[in-house]
Amino acid sequence: NHTKAAAKLHVVMNVLDGSPSRVKLTSERTGDGTPWKRVGQWVRDRLMLFDLGYYSFHLFDRIEANGGFFVSRAKRNFNPLIVGVHRKWRGRAVDVVGQRLQDILPLLQREILDVEVEVGFKKRVYNGKRSTKRRTFRLVAVRNDETGEYHLYITNVPADRLPAEDIAQTYALRWQVEILFKAMKSHGHLDQLPSSKRCVVECLVWASVLATLVS
Questions:
Q1: Maximum CA pair distance of the chain?
Q2: pLDDT of residue 56 exceeding 70
Q3: Percent of the chain having pLDDT more than 70?
Q4: Residues in CB range of 153: below 8 A, 6 or more apart
C-alpha cells in the first residue's frame, strides 16, 4: 500500500550458465506460483529448486507427472505421516515408520532423517466435486549442529540419485536466482523505472532482462 503500483518478475534460471530460461511479467497481486500452474514437458529430466513461495503439492505433483524433479524447503510445521525409510540405523534407534514427523523429530539424535512421507491435497473442482489426492514424496531432515533443529526438504529425487548428504548443498544453488536479480538491478537498472506509464515500464523491465542475457 506504500506505492501506487508494482510489478512482479517471475524467473526460472539455469544455474549452470546463470541465464534466465523462462521469464514472465505480471501485476503485483499475482501469486508467486500462479505463472507456473501449467507445468509442461520443459521440466522433463530437469531439477527444479524453489523457495517456500512456490511450496505447493499441486506443483510438486505436476512436475513429477511431466517427468521432472524438484527439491524444496518444507514448512517448519509440516507434519506428514512417515510410511517408509531410506536408511536404517543400528542400535536402539527410534522407529519412525507409522509416526507423524513432528512427533518424532524432538526424539531424534541422528544427523539426517531420510524417509518417505504421505501427503494429501485437494484437487481442482471437477463436475462440481473436489476430491482429495494422496501422494508419497521423499523427505530429508538435516540437523543443524548449532541450533539442534532440523531443516526440512521435500523432493521426488530417488535416494540412489541424490544422497541425503547432498540435498542441502544442492538446494543452496537456488540462491543463484537472487544473485541474478541483483545483477539485473546493478547492471540492468531493473530498479530504475522513471515513468508511470505502463508501456514504458514494461519496455524498461524487458530491456533489463535482455541486457542481463546479453551480458
A1: 68
A2: yes
A3: 96
A4: 71, 72, 73, 74, 139, 140, 141, 142, 167, 168, 171
- β pairing state of 47-50 and 69-73: parallel
132-167 pLDDT per residue, tens = 889 999 999 999 888 888 999 999 999 999 999 999
Q: Measure the CA–CA gap between 188 and 211, rounded to whole angstroms.
A: 6
Q: What residue ranges in 6-149 does DSSP mark as E strands?
A: 7-14, 19-27, 47-50, 69-73, 81-85, 112-122, 132-143
**What pLDDT, on a 0 to 100 scale, did the predictor assign at position 105?**
92
Q: H helices within 66-197, ranges in order?
A: 101-104, 164-171, 176-186
For residue 55, which of 121, 111, 124 has the smallest C-alpha distance?
A: 121
C-alpha cell at 65: 507427472
Q: How far is CA 25 from CA 76, 85, 179, in A?
A: 30, 41, 19
Percentage above 90 pLDDT, the chain:
47
This prediction's pTM: 0.85
C-alpha cell at 204: 524498461
Sequence-ordered list of residues with C-beta below 8 angstroms from that of 99, at least 6 positions apart, any chain: 81, 82
Note whether 55 and 31 are within 8 A (CB).
Answer: no
Cβ atoms within 10 Å of 163's Cβ, excluding its own: 15
